[in-house]
Amino acid sequence: MTRADAARPWLSMLIPVYNVQDYLAQCVDSVLAQADEGVEVVLYDDCSTDGSRALMQTLADRHPGRLRLLDGDRNRGLSAARNRLLDASRGAWIWFLDSDDFLLPGAIAGLKAWADRDDVDLVLCDFRDHHDRPRLRQRLFGERHQRTQDIPPRQPWRDAGRLMEGALTRSQLHAWSKIARRALYGEDLRFPEGRYFEDVFVSPTLMLRAQTVVYVPEPWIAYRKRPGSILSTPNPTKWQDLQDSLNHLPPLLAANRARLDENTLNAATYLAYRSWMRATCQARRAGDWITVMRHLRQCEANSPTSLAAMLGYCEKRGWLWRALRIRAAVGEASRKASAQPPGK
Fold this sequence. Notes:
By secondary structure, the protein is α/β, with parallel strands linked by helices. It has helices spanning 3-7, 24-32, 52-62, 78-88, 107-115, 136-141, 160-170, 182-185, 199-209, 236-244, 249-255, 262-279, 281-285, 289-301, 307-316, 320-339; strands spanning 11-17, 39-45, 67-71, 93-96, 102-103, 122-130, 145-146, 178-181, 213-224. The chain is built from 16 helices and 9 strands. The relative contact order is 0.10. This is Glycosyltransferase family 2 protein.
């Protein structure tokens, strides 16, 4: 090992910041409470307007030498912030953490146990929902533990097909539950700028590049459910971006076809139709069937298998209600669009 290698952080915790003054301190403190000397913590402010940047400096002053602060010249969005963080980081492993979320105890130690092994290049973890004001259900039963995978846990895994199937059927494609060796990102894999749901573009490529993956079925991240987040403020632009984020999936799967099976392809089709239903929920309620059908055509283009094949796959897995809902939604859209007067 060279002197440069010895000085290199083993992990980069990368935290993009934008208007999260109420949550940032908890996020940063949750990392610093666990980070050893081999962990660099880098924050990038995307031109916040609420005092987040001043809080970043306060936290850096409170913890001398433990935080690196970066600033954008103008607001460019989450993808650009993540790309800047990735390019500026020095760690052998990369872990993105959204600044309104926080690490749960034991997360970094749990990762290091696998990161120290030479035969692992991607680690997947679970997460737990977090509500600042929990409802009665959360108070009675606790916050929900969200699983991100179906592959066998705590063992090196090399079956790309089943790995992708689990991620696609669970719709768990967020970047922050996938901790990767830097080499998997390389010089070319970056988040598409100016779009929402950018994780859906990056995560499948990341998983297919990995030679060996480990899934740890423990929640390492508290995912904050809050007003004002991307998912809690839907609009047509976001829903279009959700569908556009899947445009790259069919060619990506085709390029890796030798490593995948029909279950993986049907899982991708299932994700496309689930995304279509989500993206057109408001349009269907408003009776805008032209928009619904436009999205449906894009869904079909992003589906590597037929609707019939995907429904059969769902039924074999015992997802009868899911299959029924998708079949009914497609049928309703086709009927209503056909009955709508021209020009509407």
